[in-house]
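Lab notebook page, bench 4
Experiment: in silico fold of construct C2
Operator: M.H.
Input chain length: 141 residues
Purpose: comparison with the prior construct
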Amino acid sequence: MSESLQPNLFTRHWPVPVALCILLCAGNLQSEIVRAVAAAGCISLMMYQWLIYLRTSSGARLLFLSLVVADIGLVSLWLLLNVVRFYTYDPESERIWEWHERVIQIQDFLLWGIAAVAVVVSVCAMFLFAHWVTKRASAVS
């Protein structure tokens, strides 16, 4: 890969590793407010990343990259809901407890969605890698 393409790759993909680092760090923090800000920031980064992909990709590549972005966004949403869950635990009123139970149900649903999207992304990535290897092997032969 030529050096002229390196800045373009970094420019197009920087929000993904930044969001992943933020999520990994936020998961280990003790402050729920910081977790909420980190999760909201990651959701914003993934929205920005998707807009970049929308301008620079198309077809199957756009679909694949959109699924990666969507999965990171869903994980961020799950973390944000976990903060809501923390603050609605042991409430003073029954109405707030209902919200707590709804948040738990939404998080359970999100986990299944996150897992499903991760499986699809993994399978697609394996096919793309296999295609790349066979293309390189045939070029060498």
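Observations: The longest helix spans residues 94-140. The mean pLDDT is 89.
Next step: discuss at group meeting.
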